[in-house]
Each structure stands twice: as C-alpha cells, then as structure tokens.
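Continuing from the previous page...

OK, I double-checked the sequence for Acetylxylan esterase against my notes and this is the correct one:
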Amino acid sequence: MAQFDMALDQLQAYRPTVAEPDDFDEFWTSTLTEAGQFDLDPTFVKIETGTPVFDTYDLTFSGFGGTRVKGWFITPAGAEGPLPTVVEYLGYSGGRGLPFSRQTFAAAGWAYVIMDTRGQGWASGGYESTPDLSSDAGLHHTPGFMTAGLTDPKAYYYRRVYTDTVRCLEAVRGNPLVDSSKIVVTGGSQGGGLSIAAAGLAPYVGIDLAGCAPNVPFLSHFARAIQITDRDPYHEITRYLAGWRDLVPVAYRTLSYFDGVNLGKRAKAPALFSVGLMDLTCPPSTVYAAYNFYGEDGGNPEKSIDVYTHNDHEGGGDYNTGRRLEWFAELFA
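Thanks. Re-ran it with the corrected sequence; updated structure tokens here:
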C-alpha cells in the first residue's frame, strides 16, 4: 500500500467539475415533501442492556415511504434534558447492532443516536433491523446496494437512505432529552457520506445542525472513484456497467443527485472531515472534492480536515474518535 492518488498540495487545491442536474433542488424538495406525508411517529422504548450507567431506548420512526426505521437512543443514566446530541450513521454493511457496543459519545455526557441503514446490517447482527421494503429495491443490480435502482434517481437506493437520515433528525429533535440547537452528525465511510448528505439536506426542512464530522467519507465524486479504485463498494458500479454498457450515461446522471460534492455544497453546519492518504476504498481525491466544495452554497461555514498520511480506509481510527470528542465538546460549549 502506498500513496497512489494526487500529492497533498494538489489534493488541497482539487476542485473538479462534478455534474449537477438542473432540477437538483426540485428533486430533493419533492422527495422530502413526499416523505413528510407519512406520520413520523417516533417511539423511544426503554430497554435493559446490562449497562446501568446508561439509559438505552429502542428508537423507531417512519422513514422514506413510511418504512419503520430502527435505531438506538442512548443517554447517561438519569440524565435530564436538554442534552447535546450526536447522531451517527453507519458504514457499508453495518447496522445498529447491539446497543452496548457503541457508547463512547454517551459516555461523554451527551445523548447519542445510532440510525440503522435499511437493508444492511449483516456485519453487525443484533436486534431487529430495518428492511428496504420499496418496490424499487427489486430492480436488477449487482450484489450490494450501489446499483439498486441506478437507472432512475427516484428509484435509487440512496434516495431512500438519504431521506431516512433527515427523518431521523426530525424524530430525534422532538425528544425532550435533546437540545435541538446542539445536534451534530457523524459517521465513517458510508456513515461519513450520509453525514454529508444529512448536512446538505437539513436546510431543506429547516434544521440547523451544530456540526458535521464525516470520517473518511464514501459516496462523493463517484466518477473519480470509479476511475481509480477497483475496491468495493464503488467497484459494484463498475461491474454493473461492464455488463449494462448502454446504461453508462443514465447511471452517471442518477449518481449526480446523490454525490456528496453536490449535497455538501448546500451544508450550513461547521465541518470536521478526515482522510487517509493511502485509502483505496474512498480515494483521497474523492474526499477532498467533497471537502473543498463543502458549504459553498451554505454560507461557507468553518471547516477543517484531519489528514492521516500513512493510513488506508481505517483512517484515524481511535485517534479520530478522540479528535471528534474534542471538537464536539468545543461546539457544544
């Protein structure tokens, strides 16, 4: 493994042309309006986990299409609100898993939310997961989720997941234990991409986030990623288009509605990114493309990026967790 992408000074200046459809805002406005027709109906059911220093709740809310999306809501035991709140989205293949496996941010004294990713979770197991019940989920695609519904933006898998991220924010901010003015979003890999999507879409529904911390984010600058890496999950798209040769223009048009570069431009929240310069899964140039454009149409919020020069997709690991703890504490103060 070596640094295979651009030199750091080139990455810092990298501002590629990323296609953006003329109806991008209309597409997401109508998508979120459609989702809003379903009763959010958030429920928080307290459960026992064997960790008495925390109060843990089984979270359920209505996401895209009314699908009941699962999650965990964890607070310090006996805490009284309102609390600063960290909402975490999960990496590819991950699900909410077992509630006692992720408690670091609750241990810091904050409310902590883990959102399940519909249709995924095989790497985590654990409690009841969230299905992907959309009829669009059955369209032809390669194994995995990157090409499910790829021929139509309205059918694409990530339309449903991105919408779930926003609905999760709406569900959580109404909880009396949550300080709605101090909500941050975070996650690694796919979770980082979902954090960017949530930050970009939150303004469409009038949510002001306190921060966004994408760690080695996925789902940005698709065209570049497909060009320079043969690792999954991006390579799922390559395999698909190697067979469906006639669908290349259609597929790239669909992906443009979901590109973290285009969504991140619209974000208003301060951001802390991270990147691994030897990352073969989410190449550094794709991360920097999202970072360099982040917030441009949202008032240019403060942003910074932590660079891990000798790391692959693990990025900063626990070093990055510590960095986020410090940064969140600054924001919440």
